[in-house]
Structure formats: structure tokens, C-alpha cells
Amino acid sequence: MNFEIHFQAMQPPTGAHPCERCLLRGNPAFLAVTAEDLRLIESFRTGTRTVEAGRAVIEEDHPSPQLYTVYSGWAFRYKSLSDGRRQILGFLLPGDFIGLQDEFADGHTHGVEAVTDVTLCSFARDRLWPLFHAQPKLGYHITWLAAREEKMVDDNLVTAGRRNAAERVAMLLMHLYRRAERVGMAREGWVAFPFNQQHIADALGLSLVHTNKTLRRLQRLGLYRLEGGWLRILEPHALQTLGDYFERPLQPAPLI
Amino acid sequence: MNFEIHFQAMQPPTGAHPCERCLLRGNPAFLAVTAEDLRLIESFRTGTRTVEAGRAVIEEDHPSPQLYTVYSGWAFRYKSLSDGRRQILGFLLPGDFIGLQDEFADGHTHGVEAVTDVTLCSFARDRLWPLFHAQPKLGYHITWLAAREEKMVDDNLVTAGRRNAAERVAMLLMHLYRRAERVGMAREGWVAFPFNQQHIADALGLSLVHTNKTLRRLQRLGLYRLEGGWLRILEPHALQTLGDYFERPLQPAPLI
DNA sequence: CGATTGATTGACAAAGGTCAATGTGGGTGG
DNA sequence: CCACCCACATTGACCTTTGTCAATCAATCG
């Protein structure tokens, strides 16, 4: 398969750019904002940052002085136990807002690590309250994002607590495909899938080996294909039913 | 047709009280508010509601037109799979705010069920945005509560995904004790513990039988006592270490 | 070409789930 | 007051799923 043309077309501009030329905002997955709100968001923003694949966006034991919005790339939130066991709490892709929890909780919260190279828009933590004050609608939007994220963690908790291995894998494949598709990362039924099996195992609460065996089984059943880092769902209905996981079409999300 | 909902809606508000005489607000676990904010909260509030132990506060398949703050009693949030498997997402006690997710997410979110008799202060969903607009500080506080709740779900996800049975039980006992203690529900080292083993199993992602065996084991080890619906932690250090779960002293929370 | 990273597999062990029986204490109708 | 019921807790026997260990394979990279 040759997806290079598409892939290039999806490349974000690296480095700083003004919010008025934000490439995400044209995306129908996000709410439109007024020019005034956009100016306010830009004044709240302190810059951009790039993190290489595999590096930490936020260290787990080191709360971040910044909040971020993912502008391009995939990342994940995680927590570790002291003996090294790691649980991925959720995946982050363009439009996701990172770091709210640190603003409020005192102790440790979670780490964030880049899966691919990631571009972020950064915001100063101590300007969050002034932002709420200056424009309550943006505060409302941030609450929206927090509630949506909690809903995703709720779903992941049901997965880890109650689904068996095959159901977990089915659910995750559908979930990741849907989210990528939503922000326009799908090309002719394929989405870039940069995760390795360790990521999947850590997200699902399974061991690496069992994750591998379960993935192979579903693949042999012809439910999906995964080639060269691209994922295609062959039997969405079967995967949804197996995972007992049905997403409604999602409303446009705020983008900060 | 659901008779219950109508019946509940017709209940006279039990224990109605003005916010100025709120018994929770004296509690050091909660932030002090100005008289003006208090008036605003009261104008946002639409009444109170009582739910009997074991009844639904919010039906899982029936999004609520109300938001609530728990005023007294214990409840829990949960989600079910279509074959009946149930996962408890978290426990709710006085001061916890319920229903934010429904405001934003379209589809299903979660159900809420009372463990003990529960008293709630109710708020109209459609007045949430006006509240943000009228007093951004209260909006900021609501975001605080949302972020705190997400942090708790994150912890539960680590538990379900990565801790073994004994670690899960140890963690949950410490967690519930701490939270109850924090809002002043402890009496000489004991807290009321109204949960049965099915609740614990559903919260931890374990089977009922295995939960029982694990509880008995930790009890025989002398780590805790549970008598007549009251819990006492005998070896907090051992339970914390076993569960790899260390809470910092918590800051005062906003109370809406 | 060796080295490294990630995927794959089989053999085996362990944790946890399922089934079924029993215990226990508090209500409740008679 | 007593026999019965019911919800919940407890236990043993057994089974299934998942985890662990270790070897092999495949692709990529200096």
C-alpha cells in the first residue's frame, strides 16, 4: 500500500503558528468559535512544543506547569504502580486537552507519553482561572472536555473490570478507529495505527503474550487487518457486538 | 413505562432546607463560600430529593434532567454490559456532584444507585451554563470537581487493570475509609460501612466468591475489622503498602 | 553481519471464576 | 414465641482464563 501522499497531506506544520491559521479548527469534529474567543485562546496560549515519539510529555512524578492541547500525533496518559506495572488510562489525539487534573488535585496524577511525534499547544496553568473569568464560555468548554474524558475513562474501567480478553481487544480497536476517523485521520478505510502490542496490553490490563494471542485470533477470524502500521476494520458490526461497545455519532467538541 | 420515576417525582422534597443552613458547609472538608455565591447556588438549586437505599438515583438507560449534589448517604455510579455484568465506577458521598457527564455526552453515560438512603440537592441541567456565565468562579469549582472525579476513576482503572485481588481489596478499604473520614463520618476510628460484598466485587472487577475469600484472608491477617456495618482499619500502613496506594491529605473541595 | 526491537508460539503455572452447598442473623406471619 | 424465609456471607471442589517463561522469528539499523 502506498499512503505516502495522504500521509504528507496530513502532516501538521511544525513549530509555532497563529491560532487563526490553526489547521484543526477547520475540522467539523470541532465547534466553531468566534474571532473574539479565538483571540482569547491565543492570548491564553504560551507557545507550542514538539515531543518525539516515545518521550515524556508530562513526567509521571513531576506535575507539569503547563496545560496542553494536542495539535498533532498520538499520545497516552498512564499511571504506574511502584513495582513497574503500568496502566494506560487513555489515548490522546488532536484536540485533546491535557493536564486539567494537575490543576486541582494535589498529589500525583498521571504521566503522558508520546506514541508518535507530537505537537502541542501549551498554556500556563496559572492562567486557567483568569481564562474562566474573562470568558465563562471557554470555561464551560473546558468542563465539557473534562466530562468527555471522564466518560472515556469510565468506559475503560468497564473494559478492564468486566470484559474478557477478546472483548477488550474488539472494543479498543473500534474505539481507536472511531476516534481517529472522527478527526479526519482515516483514508479510504484505513487509519494510521502507531501502537505496539505492549501499548495495547497496558491499555487493556492484559499481559503482552495474551494480548498477542487474542489479536491473532481476531485477525484470523477476519475481523480486522493491521499492516505496516495501518489499521482497517473489516467487520465493524462483529467487533462492536463482541465488544458490546456502540458509540453514537459524536457531537462536535470544543477546541481550546 | 416506569412507575418509579413518576412516583419519585411526586415526592415532596424531604428535608428541604435553605443553603444558608446547609450542614455540610461547616465541614472543613469544603471550601468556604461568600454569601453572594451561596445565594447564587441556592438560586441554581431546584429542590431536594430523597432516594431509598437500593433505589436508582439515575437510571442507567435514562439520562437525568437534573444534576445533583449528594447531601447525605452513600451511592455509587455504575455501568452495565448488555448481558448484565456490572462495573461500579466509583462511590459517591456527601459533597459529590452527579450528572455532569450527561450534560455533555450525548449517548449513555452511567447509572447511579443509592446504597443507603440518600438525600440530594437537585439542580436543573439547563441552568448550568447560566451559572457559569453568572459566576465563573462556580464554573471553575465545578471543573475542579470534574477533575477530581476523573482522578478517582483513573485510580480505579489502575486497580482493575493492574492490581491483584488482595491489592484491590486493600486499596478499596483504605480509599473508602479515607473518604468517609474526610467528610467527618468517622467515629473513634470506625466508619459506617453499608456495602455488601457484591458492591465490593462490582467495584473491583472481581467475582463475588473471590472477593469474599480475599476479604476473609485480609481480615484473618488482622488488617481490618468489619462488624455490624462498621469498618475499622487496624493496620493502615500494611493496607497502604499492600495496595500501593498513598493518598496525600486532601485539600478542601468546592461544594455546589 | 551482529544487534536490537517487536511479534509469535508452545508449555506450563497461577489467579481467579463458577457451581453448589451450608451457615447465619434478622424479619415476619401465624 | 416459634417456624420459616430471605438476603447475605462463607466454603470447598473444580474449571477456565490469563499470566509467565523461554524460545524463535522477522524486520530494521548501524
Overview of the structural elements:
Two copies of one chain form a homodimer. Chain A has 256 residues and is an alpha+beta fold. The first copy, chain A, has two domains: 4-137, Jelly Rolls (Sandwich), CATH 2.60.120.10; 161-243, Winged helix-like DNA-binding domain superfamily/Winged helix DNA-binding domain (Arc Repressor Mutant, subunit A, Orthogonal Bundle), CATH 1.10.10. Chain A contains nine helices and twelve strands. The first copy, chain A, has helices at 4-10, 35-44, 100-104, 128-134, 136-162, 165-182, 197-204, 208-220, 236-243, and strands at residues 45-51, 56-58, 66-72, 75-80, 86-92, 97-98, 111-114, 118-124, 186-187, 190-192, 224-227, 230-233. The first copy, chain A, has a four-stranded antiparallel beta sheet with strand order 1-8-3-6. A four-stranded antiparallel beta sheet of chain A has the order 2-7-4-5. In chain A, strands 9-10-12-11 form a four-stranded antiparallel beta sheet, covered by helices on one side. In chain A, strand 11 and strand 12 (230-233) form a beta hairpin. The longest helix of chain A has 27 residues, at 136-162. Chain A is globular, with a radius of gyration of 18 Å. At the A-B interface, strand 5, helix 3, helix 4 and helix 5 of A face strand 5, helix 3, helix 4 and helix 5 of B. Chain A binds a DNA duplex (30 and 30 nucleotides) through residues 164-165, 196-198, 206-210, 212-213, 215-216. Chains A, B: Residues 163-237 form the HTH crp-type domain. Chains A, B: This is Crp/Fnr family transcriptional regulator.
